[in-house]
Amino acid sequence: MTRAEDAWRELALRIVSRRRELGMRTQQDLADAAGVSVATVTRLESGRELKRRSSSWEPIERALKWPDGYIERWVNEISATGFLIRASDLSEIEPKARAVIKNALMATLPDVTAGQIVAAENAAIKALREQGLLPPEE
User: Fold this and answer.
1) Do residues 48 and 78 touch, judged by C-beta distance below 8 A?
2) CB 134 within 8 A of CB 93
3) CB-based contacts of 47, cutoff 8 Å, min separation 6
4) Which of 12-16, 29-33, 91-95, 116-120 shows the lowest mean pLDDT across its residues?
């Protein structure tokens, strides 16, 4: 399997997962929310590689509450670098990110308080969510 194939398959899993998180049970629900055809949603959720960018990506990103350009960045970055975070790994990312932030603060700021650490963790996690790098809060 190529990096591009992996990227498209993982994107399909993310789309399905995000759609369900937002209460859209069916592909039709997402198609309606995005104003695109069910066939478009089906193609993206199939995980098959698309050879060109589609104008339907932006409305799908908006319906999924992802940042503009998320789909294109995801596929291009994974295809180029091979760096991939699988959907099944997402639940482990936030606790690990919090631990990294805490350890960095404690190593660089010896007088940092527990409250400051928690505030920094929360701000960083919020920023990562806003950038579409972490899934939204459940």
Assistant:
1) no
2) yes
3) 8, 9, 11, 12, 13
4) 91-95
